[in-house]
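One chain shown below:
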Amino acid sequence: MRIAEISSPDIRHQSDHHERLLSQLESLIIQAENQNHSPETLSTLSSDLRQTLSRLSQLAPFSNNNSLKLRIWKLSYRLWNSCVDLSNSASVSRSSGFSKESVAGLRHVASDLLSLAADVSGVPSPAVKSASFYHKTGLIWHDLKKFDLASTCFERATEIVSKLDITRISDSGEKKLLLDINIARSRAAWEVLDRNLAITLLNRAKKSLLFGSFEHHKSLASQYLVFAKSVLSKNNEASSLNEALKLMNEALDLCEKGQAEARTREETLELKELQSKTLRFISAVHLQKGEYESVIKCVRVLREGGFGGGGDHHASLPVLAMKAWLGLGRYGEAERELRGMVAIKGIPEGIWVSAVEAYFQAAGTAAGAETATDVFLGLLGRCHVSAKAAVRVAHRVVGDGEDVNEGAAKLRTKVVAELASDERVQALFASDAAAKERTAMHAVLWNCASNHFRLKDYETSAEIFEKSMLYLPCDMENRVLRAKSFRVLCLCYLGLSQLDRAQEYIIEAEKLEPNIASAFLKFKIYLQKNDQNGAIEQILAMKMCLDFTPDFLSLSAHEAVACRALPVAVASLSNLLNFYTSKTAMPTTEVVVLRTLVTILTQEPDNESEVLKYCKRTHARASELGPDCFFGKEEVGRRELNWFAATSWNFGTKCGKEMKYELCIEFLRLASEFYGVLIDGKVEENSIMVCKSLILTVSAMIASENQKQTSLVDTELKQAVELLDRAAKILTSLSSGTMEPDLLFMYTFNACDIHGRINNSEAQLHLVKRFASSKACNPKHLLQLGLTALQGPRSSPQVATFALNECLSALLSSPLPDYENVALTVRKLVAVSSVHKGDTDDDAVHSMYKQAYRIMVGLKEGEYPSEEGKWLAMTAWNRGAVPVRLGQVDLAKKWMNVGLELAKQVAGMETYRECMEDFITSFEKKCHEFKHKITGQSKPQLVA
């Protein structure tokens, strides 16, 4: 019987299972060896391989079946080699249809498959080879930034080699692999921010994995340095700097120990170079920590060849030393280091530019700017200097425009101006390849000039703007920029009041780019030169520009007002008004422009006619568009409307005071229209203003008539009547508490005058009676109405009599009567009674004298005007002369007795009284003697 026939059924079953799984693996690997894969098929293949491997792993270990393990080993290598082929084809053909991650997944399967085979008889160092597979796969995952998968591979490799007796490993390659696995695992831990594990792994390698090898010392020192640089690149805090310094010291220590293991001069030099590099980084860390003395010590050690050889002359050492001297405040040593860089031929541009920037930033603006520029210009002949470097230096010299010290800022600007104007520097920007840097240099200079312009340092600003134009080619592409530069130079010289030079620049700008900006600047120059006619003509030229917008007229008006060129401002705004009839988008509302125009016109005398013109335009446009649309709605519109109403009113009253009655009439009529729009039934103040405007308009018409010594024509009388009728309606609607006394009197006075012209005495009398019955009435108003009614060819005795009688009654009813006005009223009443009623109506006249007598009785001496008292006494006595001659004894006695009674009440008429008494006695005696016979003798006349 054969052995196979007597074997256990389970063993046979297991063997068949192994065979089936290995066949599946081999089939899948054959597919992998086929180079034509899509991303989907490769991903599926990797998944299938992983599943098959998982099932095979469940049957492990295969300790008694070396042939099986050898077969697995071969399959692993076939899969690995297919991955190598896939990677090679992908590197040759960039358009491969699969990703690196898919290939890395297959490598990972190959590594796991090789690890499953474990130790295979006949294969040297199988564990090392398995670890190598994991190491290489982990490196690929690490490059793909799949740090979790990379860590898994490195940890699996570490687990495999940890079972080896490293003391028995003699192959240098295997020893290096042990170190590389440890370093790779440390790098992966560092990437996932497990820094403690990363450092621990490096320290572990330092203790047990160096094997006395120069190369191992160098690799481990390099990794310490890489970690230190990583710390510096991500954080500059004190703790991070200390950590980086610790790592660099470890690297430095490894370099020192590794030199003892070096076998050749080249190996020694490699470690010394790494040692110098590390010390330079240590010096940089000390610089960041502000430990400037330590920096100087490190640099001195490097230069003096402390590590053997001829010393380190790396280009970074002058920079480190210079920055350390600057930190110590020893600017002389720092400047020597900086100037010493000029002697280092071929120094990298980035290093010396960085040094120049650092020195200038720390050394201040005085010597710093000049030294930085001198070094830059000195390096032009020795080093490769690019336009980009020139831009950096210029930008550093200019700074950020935040100098508090004005002198320092000017010195910076002076230095950069010298730098920019140097022909050698300009030559750096001459080629087409330096177009970008040329633009950058222009921007640096432009911004510098702009900062000085904002500070109103126009002289410095103009100089730098001129230097910036050196970096603008004279071609069509830069035509607009050159025009812009000319315009800004024009502004600078405008600020310096060098108007001719400013005009030269703007002419040049207009040649390059004729636009509204250039036209507007020419307008400013005309204003500065006080050439108002030229400025007004330039306004018309501005309107012809293709890019003209109405905003420039508004801006021109502001400029003109600032220059006190008010006619120019008026011209600008007048032209602006013309655009409101079209559908052009406007910078402000029409009412604001009109208000501004009127305001400007009010600032100079004798502009009333122009003010009236624009006020009339305002009213016309408001009537055309509607008040809400023109003035605005709600409170905004009310304020605008009220402003024009108040302005019209103020100008109307002003013109009235100045006796410019024609203008007064127009302004007050406009005021009534504006205030009329404001009437809303709630605010009586506006109604009162309408009424006052109407009444004063009529007053101005009457005053104008008197001034011109002409009579109002029928149309003007008709207008006056209409205005007064409107005022009467408003007066009727006003409540008694808000009515101004003078307003009602003024209306009554004007209405009486106008109605008198059309012979409407009934209306006059009605007006006076209504006024007399109002609360606004006072004796002075009545007296004035009465006196006015007596004047001129259109006198009205009926109105005068009523007004004077009412006046007399009001005066006498006062607690303290004004006897001056009482006397005047009495005299006028006597006159009107005498003239208009005639001498035949003696009773009316006699009653006035008797009333005067009753008024005078009981008054203190001097209360009633003595002259008026004398006049009454004399005129009453003299009225008896005619009856005496005619023999009318009773009538003569009546008047002589009144005259005597009045004379007795007036001081200073004693002599007159005696004469009067004697005459009366003599007259009565003669009358008795002749018994009603009248003689021809007449009494002597007494003249007042």
